[in-house]
Amino acid sequence: MSRSKKQPLRKCVVTQEMLPKKQLIRVVRNKEGEVFVDETGKKNGRGAYLTKDLEVIEKAEKQQLLNRHLNAQVDTSIYDELKSKIKVDKA
């Protein structure tokens, strides 16, 4: 009876869906108030997860959802970085 390891689930802040962590991108605000994309998913700080989907990222940007979740001003460059990562992943 072999049980496969349970995948950690996280909730996308846009779609409110619970998904395996690997299908999401984590954005973090650290103690210094810097906001950045956390590729490892292990950095310290307040994290928000987004589904790896261009529409989701654009919706988050339009509705300023990350600002609310991270209690910080999220720069446009963060959204640009997220979008370019998704394009790379899809390629």
What is this structure's SSE topology?
Blueprint: E1 9-11, E2 18-20, E3 24-29, E4 35-38, E5 46-51, H1 54-62, H2 65-70, H3 76-90
Antiparallel strand pairs: 1-2, 3-4, 3-5
Helix pairs in contact: 1-3
Written description of the protein model:
The protein is α+β, with helices and mostly antiparallel strands and 91 residues long. The protein has one domain (9-90): 2-Layer Sandwich (Hypothetical Cytosolic Protein, Chain: A), CATH 3.30.1230.10. Helices cover 33% and strands 24% of the residues. The protein is built from three helices and five strands, in the order βββββααα. The chain has helices spanning 54-62, 65-70, 76-90; strands at 9-11, 18-20, 24-29, 35-38, 46-51. The strands form two sheets. It has a three-stranded antiparallel β-sheet with strand order 4-3-5. Strands 1-2 form a two-stranded antiparallel ribbon. The protein is globular, with a radius of gyration of 13 Å. The termini are far apart.
